[in-house]
Request: fold
Amino acid sequence: MKKVAIVGGGVSAFACAVSLKEKGIDFTVFDKEARPGGKLMTERFGDFVVEAGPDSFLPEKYWTLELIDKVGLRPSLLPSNDEFKGTYIYSRRRLHPLPEGVMLMVPTMFTPLLRSRLISLPGKVRMGLELFVPPRGDQADESLAQFVTRRLGRECLEKIAEPLVAGIHTSNPDNMSVRATFPRFIEMERTHGSLILGMMRAMKRANSAPSSGKKMTYFMSLREGMGELIEAAVRIVGPDAVKTSTPIKRVTKRAHGYSLAMDHGEASFDEVVLATPSFVSQEIISDLDPALATMLSSIEWSSTATISLGFSRSEIGRLPGFGFIVPRVEGRRINATTWSSVKWSCRAPSDTVLVRSFVGGGHHEELVDLADDELAHIVCGELNEIAGISAEPRFRKIYRWKKSMPKYTVGHLDRLTQIEGQLGRHPGLHLIGCSYRGIGIGDCVKSGFDAAARILPVDSEGRT
Ligand SMILES: Cc1cc2nc3c(=O)[nH]c(=O)nc-3n(C[C@H](O)[C@H](O)[C@H](O)COP(=O)(O)OP(=O)(O)OC[C@H]3O[C@@H](n4cnc5c(N)ncnc54)[C@H](O)[C@@H]3O)c2cc1C
Reply:
């Protein structure tokens, strides 16, 4: 019977594993850590439910919902508390609401934009002129900064696109590839001649689509946190199929299939799915294909940290919306903060508010390496100056994610074409995960499903 090794135990790996299980193909998931799940990690401290990594997924990227259904978690779906919804942007020493109707960075309603004090009058006029900016003729890649400045103007870049859109990737818009990260914008420009028109038409279509029944919000989570997805996936694939604390050192070729080198010994498999970050996969395949390893080394990574703080509800004032984002031009040391227990139910004791701030990534990456006390001190100071929170936190949890976010820099898609061309020389070897075609959970899940679809129960010579 065909045997498959899945190296790395993040959400991409488990999407692949669950699909292989459905197909009746034998597989083993190897993870170097004692806990599977990679960046999907939820910890419970009393009544605090703390997300170390992602706190939500986009149901629009429907593959995550498919995985949730496959592992039987639909009853655990948790919509955000949209009665408190709203994004605030810190600018000129105060928090401004993101004008109603601004989708990612594209205005679709003009009155709220005109009323907003976030953008200056010339900045608003420039955003409106997007309707008349001709689409670019050639197909060459562009940075997000070039694209937004060209279409919507510099102020929209600095105050909205950089913190909101580049912030999703914790990337620098000056070298972030718009084609690799937001192909939808390129498509809108090409098809509708304008992002504003494209976004308005997309919203009209979405509003007239039949509702799917279950209440879906723009972001969704799971009642026990995103880690629940991994726990359920492990139950479905069977704990025996998951080997934790087992780092894979190398993959080499055999006459038929591949050999995996571990700390102690080797094992043979017909196919190998590398669901590890590109810089790890690079090491693992360095003997098998040095040229492919070099190509993988061209993908850069950034580090980030999350700081979760619990405050007594009675000691803090009203918190606006779901949280705030901070444009780089403001020169502050946090990038964003979510009022976690406002955005989501079941996250903190009822007399407490759970707040989560992000540092590092696109700017001030050095903060990630500070000692806990120093980092928490900086974050509390920033929360005080930005949002007026002067209370002492009564709970604190910090997670550092070193080299955790791949940077899709300009030319990323060309590099992927090269990588995929070279990978074609190794039938039965697959590369999946956030390093390649999308960092969000939905895209990672899709990469796992796609790899499983390419793995057939029999090989080209009819062997099972
Ligand atoms: C702080 C933070 C917040 C985020 N928020 C969101 C969000 O809200 N929504 C969203 O959609 N996305 C979010 N993301 C992005 C998303 O979480 C990740 O892109 C995604 O989870 C990556 O999944 P993966 O399977 O590609 O890799 P990973 O989760 O990184 O898994 C890789 C696995 O490989 C294992 N491994 C490494 N080396 C070896 C080895 N040699 N042998 C065996 N195993 C090895 C690791 O232990 C790990 O388990 C966030 C990311 C971070 C860091």
About this structure: The two ends are 5 Å apart (CA to CA). The pocket of flavin-adenine dinucleotide is lined by residues 7-13, 30-33, 38-40, 53-57, 247-248, 275-277, 280, 304, 306, 401, 404-405, 433-434, 439-441, 444 (CB under 6 Å). The chain has a mean pLDDT of 94.
